[in-house]
Amino acid sequence: MLMNATHLKGLVIRATDGDLGSVDQFYFDDETWAIRYLTVETGGWLGGRRVLISPISVVHTDWQAKRLDVALTKRQVEKSPDIDTHQPVSRQHEAAYLGYYGYPSYWGGPYLWGPAFYPAGLASPAPASAEAMAERIGRESADSHLRSTEAVTGYNIEAADGEIGHVDGFLVDDEAWAIRYIEVATRNWWPGKKVLFSPAWIERVSWMESKVYVGLSREAIKNGPEYVESTPITREYENQLYVHYGRPPYWLREAEHKSSLSLSGV
User: Fold this and answer.
1) HSE (CB half, 13 Å, CA atoms) of 232?
2) Three-state DSSP class for 55?
3) pLDDT digits over 140-173, tens only?
4) Rounded distance, CA 189 to CA 6, Å?
5) Structural domains in the chain, sorted by start
6) Bridge-partner residues for 196, per DSSP?
7) pTM value?
């Protein structure tokens, strides 16, 4: 299901033995646009400490109850490695975090979640020894590709022939935990109109200039399907979007990958 990231913010995170806190923001991978971590406000029980929760641990999303259930205990989260969520998260920090929970590295394979298409495919934790964790951390470089959705919101969008607006939000696939679309506010052009485009169409992001460069013309965007936040995103709407922009949809690419896997016997 595709959900606006604003609807994910504030969801209660429930461990197997009680509530952990609520979702504050997201860290996504700026190469694949997959959401790697949720930042959780833990409230009083951890003295206000913020923690990271990986989508790998999510077992159920209850949209009616506005809750995410995770396969973790409160003690596991309490003893998890400290990460300053106000600072960039390094690959070494990630290695320590994943090693603590016994999860494999998502950067260790060819798919959105490394060796798997979805984070649930990595959810078989195997406790790591202190020596194994130290070795794993030592192997990793300090480079990471994580960005905060909160920080990127507001970035200007540059089309092939000029500015078109700014990043106003994100549409998230709650199975793959990937940002499928970027929500663009174009009110400087057409008051009230919002449009969507896929991160796959981005040519580059200038973090220094706070700009996103997309390989689409302003005219194409002007005539594209309008996005209305109160209207659910259907596959019919998505098809209209991809047909309009003349781009292959992500679900066809993923189906091709899965087909090649089955043919190779993997």
Assistant:
1) 6
2) helix
3) 554 667 888 998 999 999 999 998 889 999 999 9
4) 24
5) 2-147 (2.30.30.240), 153-253 (3.90.50.10)
6) 183
7) 0.87
